[in-house]
DNA sequence: TATGAATGAGAATTCATTCAT
DNA sequence: AATGAATGAATTCTCATTCAT
C-alpha cells in the first residue's frame, strides 16, 4: 500500500522469523534436557545470545513452551481434521492418521518430545488447559475410530478397547524419542512398518 | 508384627524399613512430578516430615533417585536372567520377558516411570553409569532375541530389526505411564493382551 | 497440658518473635529507603542474615510489606474504635484521635512512613485491598467527625469541609516523616501542640 | 504557532519543546508510580515511543528526574525571592509565600510530588546536592520568618518553633498529593483557606 | 530421628542502557 | 527522531544442603 509496505512487512516478517528461530532452538534444548532442567541460559547459549535477551522476544520460559506446544498441536489437529473429514473407512483412516503422526514427528520432533514428557506436568497450569483438551480429543478420536473399526469388521473385537487405545497412542508417539530426520528410514517408511506391526503383528503367520 | 527380637536388630531393621518407606514416597513424587521439578520439600511433605530430616536418611536427592533406580533394575535383571537361563525358544522367551516386565511395572511403577522419563538426563552423572549399562544390555538382549526369533521362524523377517526393537521396547514400558495396581486388569492380563497385539496385530485375520 | 507444652510454646513464641524482629528491621529499611528501592539483600544485611534466609520466614518482599502494614492498621483502628465508642463530643473525640495517632506514630513509625509513601502504589495489588478500605474508613470517620463538630458549634463552618479533612489528615501523619522516639518532645507533647495549632491557629489572638 | 522562522532556530526550539513534552510525561509517571518503581518503558509508553528512543533526548533516567526537579525548584525560588525582597511584614510575607507555594503546586504538581516523595532518596547522589541546599534554604527561610513573626507579635510564642516549622512546611506541600488543576477550588482559593486554617485554627472563636 | 533456622549457589526475570539502522 | 535487538548487571526468589539442638 504505502511505499513503506515492503519495509514494514520485512520488519514484521523478520521479527516473526527470529521468534521462530529462537523457539526452534528452545524446543531442541527443552526436548533434549527436559523442560524443568533447562535453564534460560542454556537456551540463550544455544541461540548465541544472553539470557536476558530472550525476554525481548518472549514473556517467560513458560510462554516459550506454550508457543512451541500450541503451534505443534494446531498443525497436528489440522492434519488430523483433514483426514477425519475425508470419509475413509476405519482402517484407511487409521493408516492415514498414523502417517500424519509420523510426518508430525518429522517436522516437530522436539515439540512432540516435550509434549510426551512434560505435558502431564505442564497441564497443571491454567494456560496449558489446551493440553488436556487435546488429550481428551485425542482419546475420543481414537476410541471412536477403534470402535468403528471393530464394527466394520476391520479390527479385532477380542481385545480390551482401552488397552488398544493406549497401545496405539503410545506406540506412535514414543517414536519421537529416537526418530531423527534424515535417518535411514523416512517418516513415511517408518509409518508403513509401524502400521504393519500394529495391524499384523510381528509373528509369522500364514497370511503374511 | 512380632516384638523386636533384639534391640540392635530391631533398630537396624526399623531404619531400613523407614528408608524403604521414604524411598517409596520419593519415587511416587518423582514419578508424578518429574525428578527435576520435584523439590526435597515436596518429598518431605509427602512423607510428613521436614525437608532437612530427609538428610538423616539419605545423602542427597541424587542418592534417592540412585537407590530407587538401582533397586528396580536389580530386581528386573534378576527376573530377566531367570527367564534367559531357562532355555526357552525365542517366542516363549519373549512372552516370559514381557510378562516379567509387566510384573515389574506392577511392583515398581514409580521407578519405571522415573527410569523412562529421567534416565536419559541422569545418565550424564557418573554415579548413574549403570543406567547406560542396563540400556545397552537391554538392547543386546532384545536384538539377540529378535534375531533368534527370525532365525527360528517365529518372527517376521520383512521388518526393520531396529524398528521392531524400539517398537517392542517402548510398547512395554510406556504402560507404566498409565498402569495402576488394582485396576480392572491384572498385570498378567495386560501382558497377555499386549503380547497378542504385538505378536498378532490388531486387525482381523483368518487365523484369529 | 502435656509436659511438652512449655517447649512447644517456647518454639512457637520464638518463631513469632523472630518474625517480628525481622519485620521491624524490614520496616525500618523500607521506610528509610523506600519500598521499591529496597532490595531484599538490604533487608537481609540489616538483619545480619543472607537474602535467601528471609524466605524461610516470609513468602515474598510483598508479604513483608503486607504484614507490616496490616499489623499497624489493625492496631491503629483498634485504638480509634476505642475512642469512637467512648461517646465523647466532637472536639474531645478529635483530640483523642490525634493523641492516638501520635502514639501510633511513636510505636509504628516505620510502618506509618511506609503507609504514607507507598500505600498509593501498593494498593494496586489485590492483596492490599485493605489499604483502600482503611483509607475510605478514615475519610468517613473524619468527615463525619468534622461535620458533627460543625453541628455542635465546635468547628468553624466557613471553611471547605474537604479541605479541612485533608488538612487534618495530612497534618497528623506527615509527622511520621521526622518524628523520632526519645526526642525532645514526647508523642503526647507533640499531639498537644499539634492540636493547639490546628484548633487555635498559629497567629496571636486576643483569645489566646 | 508561527512558521519556523529559521531552520536552526526552529529545529532547536522544536527539540526543546519535545524535551519539555517528554519531561512533563515523565514527571507525571514518576509522580503517580514512584520514581524507583517507574521503568523507562512506562515513561516511553506514556509518551507513545519506545524505551530506547528516550535516550536520544536524555542521558539517563536520573537526568530526567534532575531536570524535572531543578526546573521546578528554580522557578519556586525565583518566586520566593520576589516575595522575600518585597519588604513585607512577617505575616504578609508568610501569606505571600503560601500563595506562591500553591501556585507552584498548580503549575508543577508532578514535580512537587516527586520532590516530596523522592528527594530524600535522590539527595544521596552527588548530582542532586542542590536538593539538600534547597532544603536547608527552605528551613532557614521559614525559621527566620517565624522568628520574625514572633518578634513582631504576629505569631504565638508559646509553641515549639521546630514544630511550627514542620507543621507549616508539610501542611503546604502535602497538598500536592491531592490537588488537581481545574478542580472546584483554584490554587489561590486553597491558599486562602489553608492560611485561614493555619493562622486562625479550625475551632470556633469569638474573633472568627 | 526429627526440627528449624540458616546457607549459598543459581534460577527466572527485570530493566537501564547501547547502538546499528 | 525513532526503532528494535541486544547487553549485562541486578533483583526476587528457589532449593539442595548443613547443622546445632
TrEMBL record, chains A, B, C, D:
Residues 39-58 bind DNA. PROSITE patterns: HTH_TETR_2 (PS50977). SUPFAM superfamilies: Homeodomain-like, Tetracyclin repressor-like, C-terminal domain. It holds the Pfam family TetR_C_24. It comes from the Bacteria. InterPro entries: Homeodomain-like_sf (IPR009057), HTH-type_TetR-like_transc_reg (IPR050109), HTH_TetR (IPR001647), KstR2_TetR_C (IPR041490), Tet_transcr_reg_TetR-rel_C_sf (IPR036271). Residues 16-76 form the HTH tetR-type domain. Keywords: DNA-binding, Repressor, Transcription, Transcription regulation. This is TetR/AcrR family transcriptional regulator. It comes from Actinomadura rugatobispora.
